[in-house]
User: What shape does this take?
Amino acid sequence: MIYGLYLSASGVVTNSFRQDVIANNIANSETIGFKRDLANLQQRPTAAAERGASGDSIDPMLENIGGGLLAARGSVDTSQGEFEPTGNNLDVGIEGSGFFAVAAGKDVHLTRNGEFLIDRAGRLALANDKGQAVLDNKQDPIQLDSTQGVSIANDGTVSQGGKIVAKLGLFDIADPAQLHKDGGTLLGFPKGTTLATATATLHPQALERSNVEPAGELTQLMDTQRQLEANANMIHIQDETLDKLVNDVGKVS
Assistant: This one.
């Protein structure tokens, strides 16, 4: 019976985690360049399997019940989002695989957020509260003259006054599964990872919207809530059964 309590408790914790991930996706359904998180789940081995037990030390009944459910390492859904024309000459959307690179302190991060501006230092930067510098194809900040107009072509070249100033960096990594969220729309990757040049198509004066589908996320959220409630109810039922076992069945007459 205690084993059953542990299984139900793991179900509550796991579905609570999944619920948080889905709720965060829904909250960012209108965030430019946001990529939905995936709450990956895995089957936990039974206690005997974890210990490497065999033979008479294995309880066949518990083995048939299984080991319950656990949260696995999360991942990022990098599928394409829809484009939204903006008419802003500093906005750029990416079609296909690839990311913009930005400098966040001493680290380089990737993002699909192509909403840019020119900061006070004259650098091309993300139009967010941090204003990370956007990097060119050599992973250097793009320096501009704030007094002149800027145009960005569909091949990523940045021009001012009819002259090419820089080219937007467009990068990718060999294994997208290694990407992880680093706050906002920034994606991090393991140290030592080589950034390869991407060949995606750019859409100037447009932005890539979030790839979250609210209707689908709400459906998953309701399913998760039902599973969470089912596990919570099982805990309550098992608790009542244990109470009767201890106080009634085990009572000394």
Observations:
- The chain has two domains: 2-29+40-73+212-249, 83-208.
- The longest helix spans residues 214-249.
- The first strand starts at residue 37 and ends at 38.
- The chain has four helices and 20 strands.
